[in-house]
Design a protein that fits this description.
Layout lengths: L10 H5 L28 H10 L6 E2 L12 H11 L14 H11 L11 E4 L1 H13 L5 E6 L3 H9 L3 E8 L2 E2 L1 H11 L5 E4 L13 H14 L2 E5 L15 H4 L6 E6 L11 E4 L5 H9 L7 H12 L3 H26 L4 E3 L7 E6 L8 H11 L1 E2 L1 E2 L12 E5 L5 H20 L1
Helix pairs in contact: 3-11, 4-11, 5-6, 5-10, 12-14, 13-14
The structure holds 4'-deoxy-4'-aminopyridoxal-5'-phosphate (PMP).
GO molecular function: transaminase activity
Keywords: Aminotransferase, Pyridoxal phosphate, Transferase
Cofactor: pyridoxal 5'-phosphate
């Protein structure tokens, strides 16, 4: 079968429900899909990778949340691979993770405000598998899951795959609006099983949840018996402002805090190595849950990550990333000011990869899913707002990743985006 990607030019091409027109009576030529398959809605974010690969013209990529290629220590990985990979790297590993990597994660956190222990950890295939395990363990069909709005829809999409009802909670510059959460829960007449939050430099808004709100969320979680799903891939990438204590620092060993971590944003996403840090009573369940998915996380990748962190230089690597991402974020701010000016309002992240842009005035009438098509033709890509909200809100907004493009490319991208906005306004 040949897969034609050339047709992929609109968000709808990426967002169409994969079961549509496929599920039904085999006697009618359809396939007997499970009802669960209906919850597999696909990810516009992830699919943008194939979409961009299919373009034959030059496109400035503000879409995917990937680290800058230049920051990935490729040579170092190559050298380490030659040193550490042996026959033990190519057989099945322990489901919970390679002992050396678990120990490395414990040691690395011993001097941080969030120390941990081996019995709390399971190495996962990226942060995504940690999210999948969390929803698999805690969500029954019809359960309520509270998410930030906008949110990382791969996370909310995973909850939908397990049959969750999603409660979208508005955000402001301090992160999830906890008053609004209480009101919405009272209106819903039932409490959430899981409160899904990305506390630092949130994907997609770039905002950070304030300490006061973290404490209030913990109180609510205990009042309601909810799990706080603390998804923090970007916390190490703060380049401005003061550190905010994490859930695990505020409430050590809290059985209701389930933390998902990944090396994807600070080392490389292609490694697919992350970990879950959770109540030790869950460990056997997590292992059982992971065994049905992939037996173990890629062993060579675990050995490479272990050595990279062990050999020292990890903290310098992080410091280098923070400096570079600050430079790139400032460059994006400057290009936005030059080319879009008062036509947009943006968030002001103190770390991470993303900023969130909301169209203003006359431009607010432009639908960003349409703007996406025009922008793609003009040679620039972003993620439109509705792809970052389970119910398709934020037609007037979009996410830009400032991390993966150089300041020079960012400037070109913003020029093209301004042109695309002019064209969209004329329609
Ligand atoms: N959570 C958030 C908030 C993310 O931004 C990402 C990556 N885009 C993930 C989880 C998934 O991380 P990984 O690539 O390690 O699976």
């Amino acid at each position: 079968m040949t897969i034609t990607t050339a047709r992929l030019t609109t968000v709808d091409d990426l967002a169409v429900k994969p079961t549509r027109g496929l599920s039904g009576d085999p006697a009618q030529g359809l396939l007997p899909l499970a009802r669960r398959a209906d919850g597999l809605i696909g990810s516009v974010i992830d699919s943008s990778t194939s979409l961009l690969a299919a373009q034959s013209h030059d496109v400035v990529r503000f879409a995917m949340g990937a680290p800058a290629a230049e920051t990935v220590p490729t040579e170092e990985f190559r050298r380490i691979a030659a040193e550490v990979l042996d026959s033990s790297s190519f057989t099945y590993g322990a489901t919970e993770g390679e002992p050396g990597l678990i120990e490395t994660v414990v040691d690395h956190h011993s001097t941080t405000p969030e120390p941990t222990r081996a019995e709390r950890l399971v190495i996962t295939s990226g942060g995504m598998q940690g999210l999948d395990l969390a929803f698999k363990l805690f969500v029954d069909p019809g359960d309520l899951v509270a998410v930030e709005s906008p949110t990382y829809t791969n996370g909310s999409g995973t909850a939908l795959g397990y049959g969750a009802d999603i409660l979208e909670v508005p955000m402001d510059r301090d992160g999830m609006d906890v008053d609004a959460l209480e009101t919405l829960v009272a209106e819903a007449g039932r409490t959430p099983r899981v409160i899904y939050t990305i506390p630092n430099f949130q994907n997609p808004s770039g905002t950070t949840l304030s300490e006061d709100r973290r404490r209030r969320l913990l109180d609510l979680a205990h009042r309601w018996g909810s799990i706080i799903l603390d998804d923090d891939p970007y916390g190490g990438l703060r380049f401005a402002g003061a550190e905010v204590p994490g859930f695990r620092a505020i409430s050590p060993d809290d059985p209701l805090v389930f933390s998902v971590r990944t090396f994807s944003k600070v080392l490389a996403p292609g490694l697919r190595v992350g970990w879950v840090d959770a109540d030790p009573r869950l460990r056997k369940l997590l292992i059982a849950g992971k065994q049905t998915m992939d037996t173990c996380t890629n062993v060579p990748a675990q050995h490479i990550v272990e050595r990279f962190v062990r050999q020292g230089g990890y903290d310098e690597h992080l410091a280098g990333l923070r400096a570079e991402y600050r430079r790139r974020k400032e460059a994006m701010d400057a290009s936005i000011a030059r080319h879009l000016g008062s036509r947009v309002r943006t968030t002001d992240p103190e770390g991470g990869f993303f900023l969130w842009v909301t169209l203003q005035g006359e431009d607010a009438r432009v639908r960003t899913s349409r703007l996406f098509e025009i922008a793609l033709a003009e040679g620039v890509a972003f993620i439109p707002g509705p792809a970052l909200s389970p119910s398709g809100r934020f037609e007037d907004a979009f996410r830009l990743c400032f991390a993966s493009t150089t300041p020079e490319r960012t400037e070109v991208g913003l020029q093209r985006l301004a042109r695309a906005l002019d064209i969209a306004r004329e329609e």
